[in-house]
Amino acid sequence: MLELLTAKEMGRADKLAIKGGVAGAVLMENAGRSVADEVSLRFPDASTVAILCGPGNNGGDGFVAARRLLERGYFVRLGFDGDPSALPADAAEMAARYSGTIQPLDPALFDHADVIVDGLFGAGLARPLDGKLANLVGAANASGVPVIAIDVPSGVDGTTGMVLGTAIHALSTVTFFRFKPGHLLMPGHLHCGELHLADIGIPDAVLETVMPALYVNEPGLWLERFPWPTVDGHKYLRGDALVASGAADATGAARLAALGALRAGAGLVTVASPRNALAVNAAHLTAVMLREADGRQGLAALLSDTRKNAFLIGPGHGVGEETREMVLTALKATPAVVLDADALTSFAETPDVLFEAVHARTAPVVMTPHAGEFARLFGDVPGASKVDRTRTAAARCGATVVLKGPDTVISAPDGHAAIDTNGTPWLATAGSGDVLGGMVLGMMAQGLGGFDAGCVGVWMHGEAAKRFGPGLIAEDLPELVPEVLEDLEEYGLDG
């Protein structure tokens, strides 16, 4: 289940399911039961459950969960303000089925409670929590009582991941049919705890009408296009990649990228080195090739070899006119191009020059900025979420944009995008991004388009890091790729 649904898209999926014959009350009953199941599974020995019900359908889910938990022998304190009969029709029906007492929404609900169920607001919340509700959320967070959130933690925008004023910190979140972007995007992700996806009876067929364009970056998204080597293949069929090196005192980043590309499967990888760095690079390279390339003329000569089908520039290359010239030279050539780090910052004052050059070519381009590089190149990009901003940037520049971070977003120029979920804090180490650029390069050398290459590279990068864990440095990442590929191959065979 790779699709991610915005609050609006989820609402449409609900309506399509109901139109197709699934009663809204059935969907709500199934949703509430799944929440009760989560409470029972996590807290089988609990006694008192405090359930917070809001004024919408999320509150209706809470009433169902309360009834189910009462039936299972839990002592339930249900908090709700107002007239339950004034709830939306399905929620009002569920409130009428609840036989327990209803108390005002108040922090006293949490006294001696073993678990809290948050059913105040769902993914469609559009206004900041304030006043009494903000105080209630603050009291829940301060109580130390574990919270199970329904759909999304109250206060988190399910589409953008932004916290609207304040938000519940949940131990786990039970959502329905498909995950929402806000479950994966920061800072909302930090509020969700462990995520659980419940089947409530919405048929997958509704997605054909909803047509989501945002996905979880997992192998199922791209595995059928993964460039596995063939029995009759040779190194040039697996791609001939080129990485631009910096000067003699800044060569390490390019070598890390080159190793990433080679381990990712490129048949040949060459470091294009200035003359003054040849000796330094030669002392550290074995399987990676080495060629002299001074400035744009030297690069143009190397790129005239039509076997070279993918090129990376940026890591450790330096910011300035020479880098700009080399980037523009590469964009006039035929290989696929990956632009990272200094290659992006070099165009901070003249971004339109870069964007025009990208739009003028047919071969794919991938840009891999972190947040600072993104801001320098694209400025204040409009958009309510990281996904929106990445999509806008990709459309503007004509390249696939990989906006790195704990919630890395990959977006193609046509708006198709993915959020990566398998990163780890151990990737916050010098050189990690250089290896990622190389992995993306390796995928493009093997023939993947920009979006697929970005998705695969980011996923492999995270998988390698997770396998190493504490103490990770950038040099470790390429060495873990064979293990990642072996498991990926088995995944494909099993799938």
Task: Please give the structural blueprint.
Elements (H helix, E strand, L loop, with lengths): L6 H13 L4 H19 L5 E6 L3 H15 L3 E5 L9 H9 L4 E2 L11 E5 L11 H13 L3 E4 L21 E5 L4 H4 L3 H5 L1 E5 L8 H4 L3 E4 L22 E5 L7 H12 L4 E6 L4 H5 L6 E4 L2 H9 L4 E6 L7 H12 L3 E4 L2 H4 L5 H9 L5 E3 L3 H8 L7 H12 L2 E4 L5 E3 L5 E4 L11 H14 L4 H19 L7 H19 L1
Parallel strand pairs: 1-2, 1-4, 2-3, 4-5, 5-6, 6-7, 8-17, 9-10, 9-12, 10-11, 12-13, 13-14, 14-15
Antiparallel strand pairs: 15-16, 16-17
Helix pairs in contact: 2-3, 2-4, 3-4, 9-17, 9-19, 11-12, 17-18, 18-19
How would you describe this protein?
With 495 residues, this protein is an alpha/beta fold. The protein contains 19 helices and 17 strands. Helix 2 packs across helix 4 (89-97), helix 3 (57-71) packs parallel to helix 4 (89-97) and helix 9 (252-263) packs across helix 17. The radius of gyration is 26 Å and the shape is elongated. The two termini are 14 Å apart. The mean pLDDT is 97.
Secondary structure class reads alpha/beta
As a percent range, the share of strand residues is 15-25%
Looking at this structure, what is the CATH superfamily of the largest domain? Ribokinase
**SS elements, strand count:** 17
Provide the low-confidence segments as ranges: none
**CATH class membership of the largest domain:** Alpha Beta
Shape: elongated
Q: Reading side by side through the largest sheet, how are the strands ordered?
A: 8-17-16-15-14-13-12-9-10-11
Total tally of structural domains: 2
CATH topology title of the largest domain: UDP-N-acetylmuramoyl-L-alanine:D-glutamate ligase
